[in-house]
Amino acid sequence: MYIEKIPPALLDDITANRCIPFIGAGFSKNANSNNGVQMPDWKELGERVSTYMLDSEFDSAVEALSQYENLYSRANLIEILAKELHVNEMFPGETHLSFCRLYFDIICTTNFDFLLEAAFGEIYSKQGKPYHVITNESRLSTFFNEKTTILKLHGDFNDPNSMVITETDYDLFINKNPLFCTYIANLLITRTPLLIGYSLNDPDIRMLWSIIGSRLNTLRRTGYAIMCNASDNDITRFKRRGINVISLPTKGENYGSALAKLFSEILVLHPASSQTITGYSLANLIRASCVLNCQLIFAHSALRFTVHIRTCCLKLSKSGHGFPNAWRLMMPISISAMSSQLPCFGV
Fold first, then answer.
1. What is the pTM of this model?
2. DSSP secondary structure string for all residues of 213-238
3. Quick check: helix, strand or coil at residue 8?
4. Which of 156, 168, 229, 319 has the most crowded CB, counting CB atoms within 10 A?
5. Gyration radius (Cα) of the chain, Å
6. Residues of the chain where predicted confidence (pLDDT) is lower than 50
7. Rounded Cα gap, residues 103 and 274, in angstroms
8. What integer pLDDT is reported at residue 304 of this predicted model?
9. What residues contact 247, with CB distance under 8 A and at least 6 apart?
């Protein structure tokens, strides 16, 4: 099981909502399409754009995109990015869906695409809009009771002016977005960063992370990056930047499938992301158990748990569920018996 590779401290932070995911271009490569096209990562995007320029020799993605904007225009650059990222053709696969079934109140991403939004929309299509998107400082102060905030650090195609693409965009990012950077820095200070498909090569985010490290020293929270079969060079590079690599030994399994399995395994241990049991979420049931002197026994190895409740049948019945339903809720149950009512466990 891939979850065995996750440090217990990180699992604790995930379940306690003290973790902040950073989703990069490598994660979007797991998206699906009906015509067989694949989403490029950041380097591949730069290589594709460089082919549109005569006598252009690829050096780096940022250099290629900056050169294209300088030769043509910002508008042309936005259009070519939308074309090469296939923004109107890609849709979320199981990797995105498995990730979005986990609960994070804030998700950071540098991606311009809309795959996270589409995944949330597919999972919660009958429960309203469970997320809202922030692409600039003006949205930081407004919330509408959504479950999750998607923080698009470098903007998206709905707000082209906010997109961070070229060398100039990166150079001016901190000066042009002081409140945004303060907010991001606060997340990096108070939560555990978890990099998924993200290299931390972006100079703006890396600078914030470096400043936090120089100020807090050993008190800076440990960051993690999930990779598959990470090379020694990858591990060394991330370690130099203060990030511990979690290398999943996939043994031939592709990156997307390995991530989907890992997220599904975490979901079993993630109380806040459970579905409802006859109107009560598992998280609320566990809280009620603690308040009412109940006992929760979870045996992960056997995929069984038993909930023993002594005093709350009557209280649940008074809340409108009726005594028979309350009694059924309180009966000791196993995961196998609950699988039809707890789809989040996927048993």
1. 0.77
2. HHHHGGGSPPEEEEEES--HHHHHHH
3. helix
4. 156
5. 22
6. 274-347
7. 9
8. 34
9. 5, 227, 228, 229, 230, 235
